Amino acid sequence: MKALVTLMLIAGLAQSVPLTARAAGSASLLGSWALDTSRMSLAPEARPKSVTISFSDAGGKWTTHVDIVSADGAESHALGTGALDGAPVAVQGSPEADVAAFKMPAPNVLIMSLSKGGIPGSTRIYSVEPDGKHLVETSAYFGDQGVPVLKTYYFSRVR
């Protein structure tokens, strides 16, 4: 319940941040980020070999590009571009989403909601640490029997 209230609060704050503040502050998230797979709760042999997330400004729209090399060496490359207004946009190449929506309630925070085939997926909250070199991703979704799950992932700036 606390997670839902927190998520609703963040979503409400997104409505109060002027668009110019969002655009000007987005630079803190821009760039590429590599996942620290050693901090994942999965067994080492089940962890992906690498995950890189890149955020870029595509002429007033936000682009997210995710490259994953799984434990068995299989690769996936997902791409989504859209305004930071919460409107749904198409995602290409993702095994877990074909639609995403983006909001930026603060200059160093991005909220991304995902779905696939019309079925809600996860909500991802990306937050850049004050040092500008580290990014924390919180993934919120519903697991078995509708039980809410929150997972945290840690990234370091690549460029």
TrEMBL record:
Swiss-Prot/TrEMBL keywords: Signal
Signal peptide per UniProt: 1-23
Protein name listed in UniProt: LuxR family transcriptional regulator
